[in-house]
Amino acid sequence: MFCLFWSASQNTILTNLMKAQSCENSCGASFGSCSCHPTCETLLNCCEDLKHFCLDISPHSGSLLGGTDFKLLNVEFAKNDTLTCRFKSEIKTQGYVDADGAGHCISPLLFESGWIPFEVSTDGVNYNRYGRWLSVHHSKLSLEYKLLLVNGTQWQYYGTPGVGGVLLMVWNSSLIKADRVNIELWGYDEFGEPYSDQWRAEWKYLYSVGRNVTNNGAFSFIPKPSEMPLAGVAYGQHEGQSKQNVNALWSGDHALAYHLEEAFRKDSSAWALEKCLKWDQEEKLMPSFLPEIIDCPCTLAQARADTGRFHVLTSDSIGGSTPDRGHDWGSPPYEKPPRVPGFSHWKYDVITFYYCCLWSDNCDYYFTHRPSSDCRTYQPPKAASVLGDPHFITFDSSTYTFNGKGEYVLLHSLEHQLTVQGRTETMKSENGSVVMATRLSSVAMQEKDSDIIEVRLADQPDHLQVLQNQQELSFSEQNWLDLKGVFVFSGVPQNVTVMFPSGAGIEVRGRGGVMTLTVLLPKEFQGQTQGLLGTMNDNPEDDLITSNGTLVGGDSSPQDIFAFGAGWAITNITSLFTYDSTYLLNEYNFSPKHDPTFFPQFSVTEDASDPLLNPTLKMCVGDGGQFCKYDTLSMRSLELGNNTLHAVRTHTATVQDLQPVVSCGWLQPPKHGQKEGTVYLEGAKVRFSCNHGYRLYGSQERMCQEDGHWSGEDTHCVSDNTLAIVLGSVVCVVTLVVMVIAIVIYTRKQKRFWKTTIKKYPAGLGTIVRSENELFEPELLKWCLMGSAALAEAVLLLHLNSKREIIKCYTVNGEDYRGHQNQTSLHGGKPCLFWNETFQHPYNTVKYSNGEGGLGAHNFCRNPDGDVQPWCYIADQEDGTYWKFCEIPSCQMPGILGCFKDNGDPSPLSKSYQTSQKLTVQSCISLCRNQRYKLAGMEAGYACFCGNELDHHLHGDAPSLECSHGCFGDQQQPCGGDGHVIVFDTKVGGCGGNYTAESAVIYSPDFPDKYAPGRVCYWTIQVPGASVILFNFTFFNIMDQADMVELLDGYTNQVMARFDGRNPPHEIVNVSADFVILYFYSDRTNEAQGFSMVYQAYRASSSRSAGNTETNEDSDSKQAISTIGPRFGSNTERSNTSKNDKSSQIPYLITSGPKKSENERPGLSWVVGDAEELPFDDDQFDVYTIAFGIRNVTHIEQLIPVLGEVIAGDWKSYQYLVESIRKFPDQETFKEMIEDTGFFRVQYTNLSGGIVALHSGFKL
């Protein structure tokens, strides 16, 4: 036992000690005798000069644009003092001393929001006074602190048709400490290469609207157009003073329509379109930000409940529901683009909307880069709560009561470095006596190195106090605070919401004298939590795990659960709490973190004579009834029990609101029709109707089904007067007897949109080639070919391996597709529009006149913007032409095994499973490859599966369009779809491997992702018996000369070819060897897309010996050899191989007539005469022979019918051949067509003066 005696003499000694310590240059410090820490005021141990050097200010917040005059409280200055205020130790503004001796500072222009430290000096040298200023997003300021633009619509659209007149602005004149002011226009812009160190933001003075204007709170003017464009600045703000960092008021940011040049007023739509197109080009050069953005919730209930990731706004605006490159509120660390609060958002997402949508009608450009996503991949969080005397509801919905007294770990996630701690204290009954029960009184939290946020019960009933790093936060001026690594919102004193970058959200509410806590965690926390709120893994059986890893059963006794909770007590070292009172120091800081002397009332007795029992039993029923009854009877309070019951039901409602829902996505109305219904969730129905004069085809009503797909078929409205389009057959009778004509078409594995059949007429009539057009076939391919035996003999060249599939794509998203499919699907697809007729849309031949992205005067599917697969525009909408993906069977990157349904039980790949918000194709492949699985599958953009065998016999193949969902980590890569898995061979993107097959495709490491720095990889290609191996780099994107690809002789390691960023491969590499090593190296700084390479090995024929000098006097053969024999630009041979002058010739290329070729190439069969006798199927030709007939003959219109009458007795049929001959392309055009199908080194030889031409080409 001890006594504390306080005397006047002792008080004098302590006062002298406190005077000896000073807070000058020591704010936040604690001394033995006194303290300059914020907690000193409640601990009553502040140093005497605390307020003199550790400043309080009013107001404590203002616009980040600066100009706010704030007063330094509780300190006096000499009237002749010159104050300098320095923010962030670098930005200086001039302060002043008013007539009462109070100091004032002016806030500066800042490019960030949040608390900004500042210092004050009276001599411009020594800065010894400290404070902090809250920089606020300009739109969050109260209207009284802004310069208001009256009639905002007039300001925003000034200069567009029908908008003009006088513009008016008003302001609170008392906020400007001057009799006269200047009105100036400032514009915002960003400079430097995007996402580089040189990228910077800048506010620029444009001009003065008014100078030396009376400060009476209003100003009007009639704007004049700018005489010249001002560096692209098209939005900005007005300032009420003449220079920066002085006392000023700012307007809201707005589009400067009234400021723009005369060209805008003459034709605002054309002016805006030009700006829109320029932005479209700039946006294409910038990296995609879409993978960073998660889908929005599907319902308002989900949005309200998911407070860790979404903040519900009470207003909406035109152009909402689109993703933004720059978040309106900015993003830490702020300051640099595109993270500047408000203004980066305006530059990239708002003013561009004006250009493309509001000032012109070109929204397609905008929505190409800002597509509105649906909610089909939204994943709701899990919720856990602490309520009442404290009762716990875990993330997996286990419930228990732990009412110890102390400080405990509520939640800890090691991977996310998130900690939430709770403090409990004893409660008092309504008569003031202490009862054996506790309540949650404070919650402290931190994620990584963020500010520590503590929320605790305040002295005022049900009010909450919020501390940031042990210093109280005020919400009197701003209810939303952007702090270091955390965001805090408090609209009313009873509620506080805390949001962390990981998506974790903490809701704290005060009600009935008790604090209720709700924690929401996204799916990324699955299996990564511990503490009193349990393990979040969908298994309620393992929620009660002690801090040492011991499992406590859910049916354990209250005493065992009490011991379990006590084990989660924190330590002084790990504590996040503030101890700023004698009570807190004694009860929690200097005492055990779990009070071993306190034992609660583990159960309550239901005494029939208790007058409180009957109303308790009536009130405490249903969900939460047990907790309600316990709290009511233990605390002897119906109010407390009712509050507990309400808290439980609120939690239950939150969990229910967060249940996943099925969405089928937005349905568009048909062109020339309407749609009834705006709900797209499971069970919703949408009805369609057509305008007068149009007939409805397809489904009149469609319903969203449980599998996330709409029932029925696409709906169209077709005019009653539309003439039927008859797509017939063109029959050409060809009288050739010796001529054989080969037409190269798509591989048989592709269901072609046009097909060729060859039939035989009665003897003597020759060959018929019929092109049966099933749907909009390419115009040039309609026409038949003809020739004459009297003019020339053409040669049919067959590929020795002609039955293999032709690959048309080597990139994962088909960006390299150059095929000729011109409809969205081969079965019932929609026809594509021609790229040279889509000028109103972002991609057309005017903007891409050099063939970029494969665009041209055709309507073939392409992927010019790097989407997940090729697509095209279609004419199928009311308000313009839209686009759809093309399902192209032949456009499947080697290594993709297909798209498969995932019906579960089992999944197509069921050996391993993982989810990631940053999933890419290669990250999944690498995961599976590292676990030694052969196959990797991606589903819904975020899920990765591994396995060795496909259970597709249980699930079946699915259309490729079902797997076109972009990966969360890279939206330009396909990562499956809802209920559909896209499967890859894990060899794709591997670093090295051994190949012995005659042909294969090898990708750079990490493909289709960018290869990583510091990669060194080897691949061996060894094909026994091969005499030559061809290497074709179908895709090559290496950063610079520091990264390289080499081909080495497998026996000698001699470098046979080297390629890098400055020396890419332009031709096929021909290596005369059977063993080659492919080597790749990247330095430690570069990343790029890499390469895809296909090799083909060929074995030597016995007739291809070096000594074979057989000749033939066939004249046609000589001509062919001398003119079309292709030679490769890059030819390599092993040093010990004889250099034959024919070494650059492809062994299977035949350039002579039938007689000589039969001797040189045994095994080839030649067929002349009736086409019906050809012993091969379609799609087997890799080299063309084309007869151009007698196009050069004069009087062709008369000659052809006469020939038909003489030779075949059919004058009428032959008169139609004239147009066929003219329509067929000339030699050069047909050469380009061959190249478009994937052939290389295409050449042709004119025979008989150009009447016939022989084309040749190569295809791996």
UniProtKB/TrEMBL annotation:
Residue ranges of domain VWFD in the record: 382-576
For this protein, the record's InterPro entries field holds: AMOP_dom, C8-3_MUC4, CUB_dom, Epithelial_Barrier/Signaling, Ig-like_fold, Kringle, Kringle-like, Kringle_CS
Q: List residues of the SMB domain.
A: 19-58
Q: Which CDD domains match?
A: CCP, CUB, KR
Q: List residues of the Sushi domain.
A: 662-719
* TM helices/strands, residue ranges: 723-746
The annotated region (Disordered) lies at 1103-1161
Keyword rRNA-binding listed? The answer is no
Q: Which PROSITE patterns match?
A: AMOP, CUB, KRINGLE_1, KRINGLE_2, SMB_2, SUSHI, VWFD, WSC
* Top-rank taxon: Eukaryota
Compartment(s): Membrane
Instruction: Tell me which residues make up the Kringle domain.
Output: 808-891
Name one process (GO BP) from the record.
Wnt signaling pathway
- Name all CUB domain ranges: 991-1098
In which residue ranges is the amino acid composition biased (Polar residues)? 1129-1146
Under the heading SMART domains, the entry gives:
AMOP, CCP, CUB, KR, VWD, WSC
Q: What SUPFAM superfamilies does UniProt report for this protein, alphabetically? A: Complement control module/SCR domain, Kringle-like, S-adenosyl-L-methionine-dependent methyltransferases, Somatomedin B domain, Spermadhesin, CUB domain
Q: Where is it found, in Gene Ontology cellular component terms?
A: membrane
> What is the topology of this protein in the membrane according to its UniProt annotation?
Single-pass type I membrane protein
Residue span(s) of domain AMOP: 192-370
The disulfide bridges present are C690-C717
Alphabetical keyword list: Disulfide bond, Glycoprotein, Kringle, Membrane, Signal, Sushi, Transmembrane, Transmembrane helix, Wnt signaling pathway
- Protein name per UniProt: Kringle-containing protein marking the eye and the nose
Lineage, uppermost ranks: Eukaryota, Metazoa, Chordata, Craniata, Vertebrata
